[in-house]
Write a structure and sequence with these properties.
54% helix; 0% strand; mainly alpha; single chain
Length: 138
Amino acid sequence: MDGKLDKVVNECLGDKQMQELFKAWVNDVFTKPEFNGKVSSCKEGLADALTYKAKEVLDSEWVDGNPIRQYMNAMRKHIIGKNEFNEEWNNDLLSSMTAVLSKGDDWDGMLRFMQGKGLTDYRLAFAMYGELNGFANL
């Protein structure tokens, strides 16, 4: 075993494509040293890295009109301050990742933020938070 996540079983990630995306983010993005610590200090680079990894995972499906591509590009523009974030908030991987990028420095603040957005399942967001900040900080 190489220490990488190789299987995900979670009803939040019922779609195989979302499972592959989550595994790629965990194995190839969240583990990079430049993303270890306060999310606010690296959120633009992290948003870019997550988007590039999504492009790699989606491969030939990364085309104009693809909802994941549209979401990721809207999220990146929001993170750098170019646009408001007007995408729908759901209990899914993309919304969880956006919550972490938006409020991922403080777990209590992130929880309140997700509650304010109508999210009720926090498992993915806190898993990503823990990977980036260390689970001891939960």
